[in-house]
Amino acid sequence: MDRGPILTAPFEWTELEQNDQGYSFPEVAEKLNLYPTFFDRNEAAPDSTDDLIHITINQKEYQVKKDITIMQACEQNGIKIPHLCHESDLTPDANCRLCLVKVKGEQELAPACGTTVKDGIEITTEDDELNHNRKILLELQMASHEHNCLTCHKGNPCIAGSCELQELIREFDIKESRYEQNKEKHPIDNTSPVLSYDPNKCILCGRCVRACREIACQNNLGFINRGADTLVAAGANKDFDQSACVTCLACIFACPTGAMTEKIAHYEGEDWEEKLIFQS
Ligand code: SF4
Ligand code: SF4
């Protein structure tokens, strides 16, 4: 099991004693009886056949557990649906609209991350129309986002994953955005001892906000302003070092772009170096 990030400074209310090794999130969750099966989904007992339903995805039939989302049903069966705001450990928010799919008989497209499967449901996850919509959404994200990929820290192997936005842009073979790029620059917040927040690279997916609330139990992050001026901010628009941030890094692991990154890892390596190490 991937034990995820380590908490080195457990809070008093966890009743965990300080130790040199720290505690993984599953250990903290177990101690606090949070999400009893949250971290052990793969080790859960097999489902009773009463809990299983039949669905069709892209004209192929599957048997899946009832009460899961279309996204979960697809992930369990190796069917990839593009997404940016969805993260399997967080509450769905359906704000990026990339995971919209067609459900037979429904007039509106359905967000796969926030729609529960029903017995007999027929889903189309990919066709020319859906992919056309997704390209437009990605181009809009490109136009709202500073693409300084050569110096973006998200390519750093010490930082979880690579930029999910860049990966999707490559997957959809997008060379440029047809929309005018927003050139407005926001100051980078480097006040935290552990993280750097660059609002210019933020796509407002809200994953960091949900991670801070649902994993770190801090609720230190939120959105400020409205419309095109919307930004993620710590502590209702304070610098990170003046906010209630406990430097747990949950937001960094949730962020799909180079907006929220681990400070200590900056300029310490490149993606190709990580591959070199693992191949040798
Ligand atoms: S590092 Fe700070 S802002 Fe980020 S999730 Fe943890 S408490 Fe929240
Ligand atoms: S900082 Fe990252 S995780 Fe948070 S809203 Fe922006 S892109 Fe999403």
Please give the structural blueprint.
Elements: E1 6-7, E2 23-24, H1 25-31, E3 52-57, E4 60-65, H2 70-76, E5 100-103, E6 110-111, E7 122-124, H3 128-143, H4 164-171, E8 195-197, H5 207-214, E9 221-224, E10 231-234, H6 250-254, E11 260-262, H7 271-279
Parallel strand pairs: 3-7
Antiparallel strand pairs: 1-2, 3-4, 5-6, 5-7, 8-11, 9-10
The protein binds iron/sulfur cluster (SF4) (2 copies).
Encode the helix/strand succession as letters: EEHEEHEEEHHEHEEHEH
CATH architecture of the largest domain: 2-Layer Sandwich
- Major sheet details: 5 strands, mixed
Provide a count of the helices: 7
Instruction: Classify the fold: give the CATH topology of the largest domain.
Output: Alpha-Beta Plaits
Termini Cα gap: 24 Å
What small molecules accompany the polymer chains? Answer: iron/sulfur cluster
CATH class of the largest domain: Alpha Beta
Shape: globular
The main sheet orders its strands as 4-3-7-5-6
The structure class reads alpha+beta
Please tally the β strands and state the result. Answer: 11
Low-confidence stretches: 274-280
Mean pLDDT, nearest integer?
A: 83
What percent of residues adopt helix (DSSP H or I)? 10-25%
Name the beta content range.
Answer: 5-15%
Radius of gyration: 20 Å
| Overall structural domain count | 3
